[in-house]
Amino acid sequence: MSEPCFTLEEIAAALGARLYGDGAIAIRGAAEPATARPDQIALAMSPAYVEGLERGQARAAILWEGADWRALGLRGALYVPRARYAMAGLTAMFDPGPDIAPGIHPAAHISESAEIGPGAAIGPFVAVGAGARIGPRARIEAGVTIGAGAVIGADALVYAGARIQRNVRIGDRFIAQPNAVIGGDGLSFVTPERSGVERARETMGAQGPITRQSWTRIHSLGGVVIGDDVEVGANSCVDAGTIRPTRIGRGTKIDNQVQIAHNVELGEDCLMAGQVGIAGSAVIGDRCVLGGKAGVADNLKVGDDVIAAAGTLILSNAPAGRVLMGYPAVRMETQVEMYKALRRLPRLLSRLAGGGKKAVSKPDEND
Q1: CATH topology of domain 105-330
Q2: How many CB atoms lie within 10 A of CB 134?
Q3: What average pLDDT does range 10-23 have in this prediction?
Q4: Distance (Å, rounded) from C-alpha 176 to C-alpha 89?
Q5: Could you name the CATH architecture of 6-93?
């Protein structure tokens, strides 16, 4: 696959940017200012990058509003309303994706009853089960398995090693990063007698003696339903529902090493950062953002537009529009005050132990 190359004028048109200088400059990639080559566009979106531009070799750059491109020694410059949004368009232009030969690789195993859409590209060692359907122009990298009856929409991109299990239905323009697993069995087990977990829930821990117990699997029949324009990161798992399907709404983006448990309903346009865990049967509204290592306990409801900072653990229902932080989750401003109070406790206790006299201590720069 040939290296993408665009003129500065073509990039400006694609990004809706204002172009100044020589629009005929050939651009073959993007780079940070200090390391940019003459054929790369430098991403110099704030005055902090001036020194980098001086060290690098870029002839063209995306600049911050008010920057003097001539004084910076450039031959051309682009100005955009929202720099980070422009990066999305720019990086897409220079990322053609994996080079998979059109058609079905001879080393792939495709069931006779599977349906492969026109223009699809299937790499080596891909296995597609009976009755599965893969949409037009889908690209499936090496070593992917697609289970019996699974459905994947048009223009999908499934990277190496991903697993799409049976009873999974996925919309158009789906992206699965390497080793993502969609539709594995959930953690759904039951004991012949009331388990210690059930007693602990009912009594808040005053359950009496622990008794021996064995676990019997409740099989996952519900599968997974995923809307259009969803992305699932590397080594992330979306478990199948027990009876009803686990659902991921249109436009939701899931980072690496995220766990979405059985029966979860995750809304539209959500963003789940790395190592987020959502426990079984939780319902998450639209446009929610969960920072890294945030978690939601089982059977809870989180309203639309909730934002949870990294490490937040949601243990009760969260109303729409709430910004949460901490363990257990509280309003972010409340958590900040709690944290400040906690840091002041040693000095407060020292003063109390000294009979009310102010203890001599070095001020804490974080207070």
Answers
A1: UDP N-Acetylglucosamine Acyltransferase; domain 1 (2.160.10)
A2: 27
A3: 97
A4: 20
A5: 3-Layer(aba) Sandwich (3.40)
Q: Evaluate whether 296 touches 312 at the Cβ level (below 8 Å).
A: no
Q: Degrees (nearest 5) of the Cα angle 78, 82, 84?
A: 95
pLDDT of residue 203: 82
105 flagged as catalytic: no
Q: Is the pLDDT of residue 365 over 70?
A: no
Q: What is the pTM of this model?
A: 0.88
Cβ–Cβ < 8 Å for 160, 141: yes
Q: Which of 105, 109, 219, 262 is catalytic?
A: 262
State how far the Cα of 133 lies from the Cα of 295, in Å rounded to an integer: 34
- Rounded alpha-carbon distances, angstroms, from residue 222 to 62, 259, 276: 48, 17, 22
Query: What mean pLDDT is predicted for residues 47-72?
Result: 95
Sequence ranges of the chain with CATH classification 2.160.10.10: 105-330
Dihedral class, residue 152 (left if φ above 0, else alpha if ψ from -120 to 50, else beta): beta
- In this predicted structure, what is the pLDDT of residue 359? 47
- Give residue-wise pLDDT tens across range 306-328: 999 999 999 999 999 999 999 99
Tokens of 294: 């945030």
Phi, psi of 14 (to 5 degrees): -65, -35
